[in-house]
Amino acid sequence: MRPLDSRPAECIGMRYLGRHGLDGQGACGEGTALLERGGHRYLYLAHEQGPANFSVLDVTDPTAPRLLTQTKLPHTDVRSNSLAVADDLLLVAYQVSRPGQQPAGVEIFDLGRPAQPRPVGFLDLSGPQSRGTHWVGFTGGRYAYLSTGTPDSRPTHPLDDQFVVIVDLTRPDRPAEAGRWWLPGTQQGDPAPPPVRHQKFDAGFRAHNINLHPGRPGRAYVGYLDAGAIILDITDVAAPRLVSRLDYHPPMPGFTHTVLPLLTRNLLAISDESVHDHAADYPKLLWFADASDESAPLIISSAPLPPVAEYARRGGRFGAHNLHENEPFGWSWQSEDIVFGSFFNAGVRAYDVRNPFQPVQVAAFVPPAPPGSAVGAIQINDVYVTSDGIVYAADRSGGGLYLLQFEGTG
Predict the structure, then answer these.
(1) What pTM was estimated for this model as a whole?
(2) Residue ranges per domain, the chain?
(3) Which of 42, 45, 145, 203 has the fewest CB atoms below 10 angstroms from its CB?
(4) What is the CATH architecture assignment of 29-334?
(5) DSSP one-letter string for 330-364
(6) Is 201 strand, coil or helix?
(7) Mean pLDDT by groups of 10 residues along the chain of 410 residues
């Protein structure tokens, strides 16, 4: 076990197991995926920025994670912030600093040897007005889901340059676009007018996470930044259509990141990402919405967070970000009663939502600031949880990977 540099600021309902600094490349992105193979657990981590591309660790013993592979990016103007693993494939998203640069798109790797991903295909999504792919989702089957620009995209505003693209992986060596959807008004030539910009915090009207639920395969649940939470009908992948849009900003400050369907409960868990330091864009919360009528979802509660005045002084961002997404694998935590999330300087937290009108925090872990952190605080960026309650929390400020044991609700 690698000890913490000092006592955690908060440790409730989780037990610290270990940490890995990723050989000095501890600025992690928001792509965390797990694969079980031959009695081993392999963890795949995206990085917030270069030079590292992605890392592969053996986490079979969570008290002693081992770095097996760490790949490098081709240049400093590309980042691979997101990845996904399923069906013995690894998908990695590439986003460039400026439109027209390369590589921009998604790369596919074969995981026949889990510790040594082998590139087999690439979907080039670069273009004169495309920065490529920010996020990739894939839980197996024929299709992957991207938030991306495309070679032919023509956004009406530079901040609206990434939308939903569905990719056919029937031939992993020849990935191909199967369908696309964007918010009306965000591409040139749309009959709808461009959306009204947010005055204080204009993050853009573009897609982020895209989640599916195995109980309702004809739907996609999309965090669409300043456009709110979107439900799409993807029964015809070539022509997705809008089912509903839940937009509550303004008055809230925007940047809807993740929409996690909890459909046995008729709920949606919705996170709004904090993107400014010192809680300047507060409140950035984890919301819960009633989705019993999918055409008109309604926010009914939010998860409690620690005092904003205290955490705003700690440095870095404070507020919601990624959620554990209940992937349909035997090794993945799958619960619609306990929801895990990452909250930057408020660490990783878990909530009991059996009473959706009054979510209750049941666990929290806030490690000390990692050595050399530019913001002087932990910035937990992503979280993945296994079926036996091992929590993998990734930090974006240099701390690398934290491994915890969720101790249940008591």
Answers:
(1) 0.97
(2) 29-334
(3) 203
(4) 7 Propeller (2.130)
(5) TTB---SSEEEEE-BTT-EEEEE-SSTTS-EEEEE
(6) coil
(7) 72 96 96 97 96 98 98 97 98 98 98 98 98 98 98 98 98 98 98 96 98 95 98 98 97 97 97 98 98 98 97 97 98 98 98 98 96 94 98 97 90
